[in-house]
């Protein structure tokens, strides 16, 4: 039988496909690096789009608040309920508040907020900028003497980098309240001792690393949404793909970043 | 037609080339446009008509050639200079390009508040109301773009570009997708803009009615070059089959058109 010429990297055709894919990958990476670089260059150069940044902060925060509240509260309550049996086996249900505090502050709060925001805010940014791109609104902005990158991208990325850490703090608070409801019903723990146990368990490093991590998550969500929207292909299909890719890529990157943060904070602890 | 003719050249294009990969859309375009002149660019879809006017405002970079608009070499303009140049050139997009998330008032205000500092609220309102009344759409001021018809959106798009009183207007398919009556209104608006602002215009279209009623000269883009430039009658007196096909289709004289292979 003659050797296959289609699915092997040994064959000239296979090598061509691999080379083309690698070329494409590195070109995309260079494009992403240029986009991020442009953000840092333009973010620090006047004129500053304060009004648009404030408007976007309001949009990002307001748009996600109800969903974050519900999700955070349920996460806290369900996590507490599911953790109880394991601790009960050792007669250690009194450790529930400490366990919950550590899990929520270190991981669940920032992650849940980032995932909800990626779905809610990231997709919306990808779709909005994508549709502006498709309908020539970005070009229209440029020819009317406004830098669309600064007006659309810089303002949104700053807004998500600032608002998502705030939303994370709020989610942590709401999740701890959800957990308290469960704890007080089952263990009759008082609010004062619940709070005391929480603050006894967490450290400044936990809070600091969570806030820092959330800033990175927020930056990622905003940047991915803007990048995908800005580079959407023409047509309504392009807008849909941009919105979808914004969510999928942002969620994937959030998990990767969480893994990296875990290693860094683990080394510091 | 042309009201006050001067021979001052405001747009000069020489040897302009532009390709997208293997697709060579512009292959040495030359054009000179005088102040207060309306030039219509005709050509089939995908022949680079829109590319040409996008190069003229610096939205696309040419591969070769020179584009001098209002004395500026567009390719060399950067930053503030480019922004100031763009204020003098209005661009009406094929899709109107109204900002969906803003009301009509905000759409019209946008170029004004972004480019002219220290304007009072009263001055902004006055300019917006004037721009809207000039296109006969004062009642839409508080509506959102999605609530308007195609023709209304087109007129608002033109009003938004006119608010900065440009010296040059570039229209990309101004009548595409519009009914004949609305198309006539848009054609009249294009002529009014020239009369009122003394603007020089380039109108990209494949609507010959629009071309005939707005253009002083017609430039026919064929194979990436302006093969014929002249008045409407001069251009369509040419027996070239490609030009005649264009004419026959638009004026529904479907005689002896060979099938496209």
TrEMBL record, chain A:
Keywords assigned: Membrane, Transmembrane, Transmembrane helix
GO annotations of cellular component type: ATP-binding cassette (ABC) transporter complex
Bilayer-spanning residue ranges: 60-79, 99-118, 157-181, 201-227, 247-268
Highest taxon listed in the record's lineage: Bacteria
Gene Ontology MF terms: phospholipid transporter activity
InterPro entries for this protein: Permease_MalE
Protein name: ABC transporter permease
Originating species: Spirosoma profusum
From TrEMBL, chain B:
Any one Pfam family match given in the protein's UniProt record, by short name: ABC_tran
InterPro entries for the chain: AAA+_ATPase (IPR003593), ABC_transporter-like_ATP-bd (IPR003439), ABC_transporter-like_CS (IPR017871), P-loop_NTPase (IPR027417)
Record keywords: ATP-binding, Nucleotide-binding, Transport
Domain ABC transporter residue range list: 11-248
GO MF annotation list: ATP binding; ATP hydrolysis activity
Annotated protein name in UniProt: ATP-binding cassette domain-containing protein
Provenance organism: Spirosoma profusum
């Amino acid at each position: 039988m003659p050797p296959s010429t289609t699915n092997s990297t040994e064959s000239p055709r296979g090598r061509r496909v691999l080379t083309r894919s690698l070329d494409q990958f590195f070109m995309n990476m260079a494009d992403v690096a240029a986009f991020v670089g442009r953000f840092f260059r333009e973010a620090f150069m006047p004129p500053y789009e304060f009004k648009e940044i404030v408007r976007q902060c309001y949009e990002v925060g307001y748009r996600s608040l109800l969903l974050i509240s519900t999700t955070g509260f349920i996460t806290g309550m369900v996590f507490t309920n599911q953790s109880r049996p394991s601790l009960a086996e050792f007669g250690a249900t009194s450790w529930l508040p400490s366990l919950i505090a550590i899990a929520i502050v270190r991981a669940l709060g920032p992650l849940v907020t980032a995932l909800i925001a990626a779905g809610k805010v990231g997709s919306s940014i990808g779709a909005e900028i994508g549709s502006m791109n498709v309908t020539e609104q970005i070009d229209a902005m440029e020819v009317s003497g406004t830098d669309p990158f600064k007006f659309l991208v810089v303002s949104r990325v700053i807004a998500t980098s600032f608002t998502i850490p705030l939303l994370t703090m709020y989610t942590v608070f709401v999740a701890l309240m959800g957990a308290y409801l469960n704890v007080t019903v089952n263990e009759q723990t008082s609010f004062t001792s619940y709070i005391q146990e929480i603050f006894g368990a967490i450290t400044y490093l936990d809070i600091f690393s969570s806030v820092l991590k959330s800033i990175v998550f927020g930056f990622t969500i905003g940047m991915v949404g803007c990048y995908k929207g800005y580079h959407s292909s023409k047509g309504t299909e392009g807008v849909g793909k941009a919105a979808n890719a914004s969510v999928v890529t942002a969620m994937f990157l959030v998990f990767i970043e969480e893994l990296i943060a875990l290693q860094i904070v683990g080394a510091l602890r | 037609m042309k009201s006050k003719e001067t021979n001052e050249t405001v747009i000069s294009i020489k040897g302009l080339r532009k390709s997208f990969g293997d697709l060579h859309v512009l292959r040495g375009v030359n054009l000179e446009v005088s102040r207060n002149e309306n030039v219509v660019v005709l050509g089939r879809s995908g022949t680079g008509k829109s590319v040409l006017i996008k190069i003229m405002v610096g939205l696309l970079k040419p591969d070769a050639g020179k584009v001098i608009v209002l004395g500026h070499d567009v390719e060399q303009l950067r930053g503030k200079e480019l922004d100031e140049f763009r204020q003098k050139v209005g661009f009406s997009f094929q899709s109107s390009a109204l900002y969906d998330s803003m009301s009509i008032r905000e759409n019209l205000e946008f170029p004004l508040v972004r480019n002219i500092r220290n304007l009072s609220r009263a001055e902004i309102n006055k300019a917006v109301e004037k721009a809207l009344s000039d296109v006969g759409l004062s009642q839409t001021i508080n509506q959102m773009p999605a609530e308007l018809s195609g023709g209304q959106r087109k007129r608002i798009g033109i009003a938004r570009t006119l608010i900065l009183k440009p010296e040059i207007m570039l229209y990309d398919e101004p009548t595409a997708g519009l009914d004949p009556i609305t198309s006539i209104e848009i054609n009249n608006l294009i002529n009014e803009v020239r009369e009122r602002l003394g603007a020089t215009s380039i109108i990209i279209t494949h609507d010959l009615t629009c071309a005939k009623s707005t253009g002083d000269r017609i430039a026919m883009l064929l194979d990436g070059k302006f093969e014929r430039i002249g008045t409407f009658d001069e251009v369509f007196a040419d027996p070239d089959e490609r030009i005649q096909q264009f004419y026959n289709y638009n004026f529904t004289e479907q005689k002896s058109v060979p099938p496209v292979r």
